[in-house]
Design a protein that fits this description.
The complex is a heterodimer of chains A (128) and B (612). Chain A has 128 residues and is α+β, with helices and mostly antiparallel strands. Helices cover 20% and strands 22% of the residues of chain A. Chain A has a single domain, classed as Alpha-Beta Plaits (2-Layer Sandwich), CATH 3.30.70. In chain A, the strands form 3 sheets. A two-stranded antiparallel ribbon of chain A has the order 1-6. Chain A has a two-stranded antiparallel sheet with strand order 2-3. A two-stranded antiparallel ribbon of chain A has the order 4-5. Chain A is globular, with a radius of gyration of 14 Å. Chain B has 3 domains: 197 residues, Aldehyde ferredoxin oxidoreductase, N-terminal domain (Aldehyde Ferredoxin Oxidoreductase,  A, domain 1), CATH 3.60.9.10; 177 residues, Orthogonal Bundle (Aldehyde Ferredoxin Oxidoreductase Protein, subunit A, domain 2); 159 residues, Orthogonal Bundle (Aldehyde Ferredoxin Oxidoreductase Protein, subunit A, domain 3), CATH 1.10.599.10. Chain B contains 25 helices and 17 strands. Chain B is globular and about 60 Å long. At the A-B interface, helix 1 of A face helix 4, helix 7, strand 13 and strand 14 of B.
Amino acid sequence: MKTLALHHEKCTGCSLCQVICGLAHFQENNPKKAALRIERKFPEPGTFEIHVCNQCGRCQEVCPSEAIAERGGVYRIDPEKCDFCGICIEECPLQVLFTHKDLSYPIKCDLCGECVSVCAPEAIEGRE
Amino acid sequence: MFGYGGKILRVNLTQKKIEKQGLDPDMAKEWIGGRGFIAKILYEEIPAGTDPLSPENKLVMATGPLSGTFWPSAAKVVFGTKSPLTGGYGDSNLGGLLMAELKYAGYDMIILEGASEEPLYLFIDDDQVELRDARAYWGQGALELEKELKKELGESFQVATIGPAGENLVKYANINHEFGRQAGRCGMGAVMGSKRLKAIAVHGTGGIPLYDTAELIRVSKAALKHITSHPYFKRFRQYGTTDITDWCQGMGVLPTKNFAYGVYEKQASLAPEPMREKILVRDKACFACPLNCGNYTHSRKYGTFIDGPEYETIGMLGSNCLVEDIEDVQYLNYLCDDLGMDTIAAGGIIAFTMECVEKGVLNKSQLDGIDLSFGNVAAMKTILKKIAYREGNLGSLMAEGTRAMAQKLGQKSERYAMQVKGLEFSAYECRGAPAMLLSFMTSDIGAQHTRSWAIVQDMEMGRDNIEGRARLVKELQTLRPLMEMFGVCRFPWLEVKLDFGEYVKAFNAVTGFGYDKEKLFQISEKVWNLTRAFWVREVDDFGRKYDLPPERVYDPLPSGPAKGMHLTEEKVNRMLDEYYELRGWDSNGIPKEEKLRELGLAEVAEDLKKNR
């Protein structure tokens, strides 16, 4: 899988993607540790927008501690090397690096594809 | 403890005191959660004879062990109280995102006690729990306030609110969440209003501990696969509960003109396809739900947005009041939501009032100048507001509910006051559906459809006989309420036939309790008997007569596919005889001592002995 194609108009806001994301990466039933965010535009206009990393690599460029490495088009944060300075979070063009109070590094999508597998309305699609 | 947040919030509105208590592991094992917790708390903690709108009543909000987990459609929280509408046990479940958030904050249950003098709202952000000033919000619409609080506190907060109807103690006021989802029935909003609690806002960041994470992922993914590959999946996703509108018309069970008829000649305009075409904005899901039955709509005619109308609302505010335009129904739904009252009860009492006007039971001087005749949408808009603010004679009278209004009006209006135990019928005309009628008669909150939606089986078992109905209803009433103890929605089981055994696997993966179906059914039966005992304790002359339907069901249906069908008193009583027998209750519908002891309710048996 090279990228995630997002079909915002199909998203129903169910959050299953966030729950599986937390389970897959932290073995914890906690969607607050997900690498994607569903923006809920209610009551008007009544739509959802999915926010998730597109692997642009900007975070790696700005990281002062060389904690972010690329392999096969996927950028991953090494929690050991990360000193949680927050620069990547600020610089992320899509604002899709997330924090959680239990963690001392940002949560970032590693393109594992678990969200795709549980998205019943097919709003998140994996593309090669 | 796995599957549970592990904490209870006990909030005393009189003393402005917030206590965090541990959840007793035995309570979790014996009562599971949701309505199980509620039944136990209400029975044990509310003094017998409590006025539902007094500070002594309690409003309980309870999640279940599956709420907020990866299990599909694990999206339900249950509110419970002594109902101001019925005077007996009341609960009502709510979807959306609130229950998951509460679990992530670490709480399984909130118990609201006492009453404040000044309006307050409950603020929960993980460990930080506060009662905050809500004077500025008092008087606001339920939808409007949800929007405002989310703006003020942040999108990540989940918010439940009451509207003016709750503030003004309208007996069927509800609790709103997620711009059009409600704990709709039994007057939860009125009890919240009586405590001067305007809203609850929750944000949580913690996880839910699971007994066997790998197993929960495995059974949940298998369930997802089953759901999404079922032939009905695509259609149900598109239409949700509105898909039943055509079916009800086709079977002649669509409530029309205060349940006088079972078919509505202008039903086509209320059908699911034109509705979707005309007003749908977005398919919308509750938490973790692949079935997304929610229809989020926008009426161009009125400029209003809501999650709905659901089938029940289309039936009750549409055909039952002879309203044919789906946009009018959407707007009436919006009004009910923002004013904060149940669309089922509101549709029921408006149709009842319209019939009273037509029959001359209400005379012109009692109508405050409102022409409440069938199909008059403008008058319906006016009266909904008057009810919410208890304005005028008619608004105040209608705010009390259909049963109270019929008792006051007399003149045989009780015959067509469509309620059982004080709770208005959901949207099913039952003369050709005896099991559905028995479900309404025996549901432990009054005439609500969700405990046992037996109407499909009625068509299969033959509409003119009553054989096997008591057993069917008892079985459904044992299985389905477990969903509201687990904290999940019933639709994957009901609509796309996800086997109940899979729920049991998920329950055990989450909790580690290792229960089998029989054990769970036994707990469900215990809860059912406890809620029945609550009725016996709270209502002096409680018994069979509270299970009887309005006499309209004895009149033959005048038209439609079910033309000529009707029940008789003999059949209704025979169904009750069989039902009581299967339940282990006496001929007046009171649980027998040995039954209560068998279920581990020996103390309750003692109470009832003293009581009678």
